[in-house]
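Page 47, continued from p. 46.
Same chain as before, 380 aa.
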Amino acid sequence: MRIKHILDHKIIALMIVAVLLMSTVFFAYACNNRGSNPSSTDVTNDPDATGSLTTPTMVMTTEPETTTTTETTVSETTTTTVTTQPEIKHHFSHLIVFLDIQQAVFFHTNEAGEAIAEISLPVATGREKGSTPITSPDKPFIMPGFTARLMLFTKSRPIVWVRYATHVAGDIYFHSQPYDHFIDPDGQDVPLDKSLFNLAGYRSLGRNTISHGCIRLCMRDSIFLANTVYRGMPLYIFQSSKGYDLPKAEELPPVSLNTRWDPTDMDPANPYRQQEQNNMAWKYRPIGQQTTVLMESKPIAADSIKNANGLPAGTTFRFLYTPGVSEPVLRTAFIVVTYPDGSYEEVRVKLDVVDPAQTTPTTEPTETTPVETTPVETTP
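Result:
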C-alpha cells in the first residue's frame, strides 16, 4: 500500500514535469516567430512581450527639424515728385546809389519796361574819391543777399559796431551809422551799447560823404533796405543823378534829446520812443554805480543801481548779458531796469571783480579810552 502511494506521487510529479516542458517548448516557438532581434525603432508597450531576457536598447533618433521660411519681398517704389516753385516776383527791380545827391533809390520796372523811381533813402558814402566804387550802366553789382544784424568792423580805425550790414561786394556794405566800441582790461569786447551812436554821421546823411567806402544809413532805413533787397538784385552806383526823375527822400527826425541814441531806432529802450509813450522809463532815471563782486560769485543786478530803492515798487533788475566774473577785472555790464508798466531801459555799469584770496580784510582800529594820569607832586 505504501509502495502504491509512492508510485502515485511519482506519476503526478512526472506529469507536472511533462506539462512544464511542453509549456516551455510552446513559448519558445512563439518567441522565434516574433523575430530574434527587434529593431531599435520598434518600441512596444505590449506587457506580454516578455519572452526575451534581453531588454532592447532604445536609441532615440532625432530627425532634423525642417524650418520653412517664407520670404516676403516688398517692392519699394520711390516716386520723385518734382515741385516747381513759382517764380518769386519782387516789386523793386533794381537799386541805384547816386553819389552827387547822396541818395539810394529803389526802382520798379513796370510791364512796359519803364524804370520808375519810387523810394529814396538818404545815405553817406566814402569820403575819399573812389572809396565807394562806381559801376558802369551795364555791369552792376549783383547783391548776394547776405545781411548781418550786428557786425564788428575790425579793419576800421577805430573799431566800430554796425547794425544791419547788408553786403555789396568785398569790404563794401550798406549799414547803420557806427557805434562806439570798447574793450575791458582783459581784452574782452564790451557788447554793443545802443546809446553810443555816431550822431555826427547821422547829421551827414543825405548831405556829406563821411565813410571809408561803405554806404551808411540811419537805423530805420538800414532795416528797410535789409528787408527789401534780395539775392540777385542789381545795384548800380553812379556819380551823377542827371536825367533821373527822383522822389525826395523822407526827412530824418532831428536830434532833440541829450542822448546818443539813433532817433529812428524803434527799440523801446530808446529815450525817443519813451518820450512818445510818456511811460515810466521816460519819467524815471536809474543811476548806475560801480560795485565790487567776488570771483565766481553771482552778482546782484540791483546792487549796481544806486537809486534802486527810489524807483517805483515792483521795478525789477537783471543783467542784459551774464557778466564774466571768472578772473579779477573791471568788467562792463548792462542792467535792464523794467518798470511796472512794462517799459524798460538799459544802464551801463562797472563791476570790480576781485579775487577773495588776494583781498586783504580791513580791520577797524580798536577804540581805546585814554587813561587819566595824576601828576606826582614833588616837594621842592
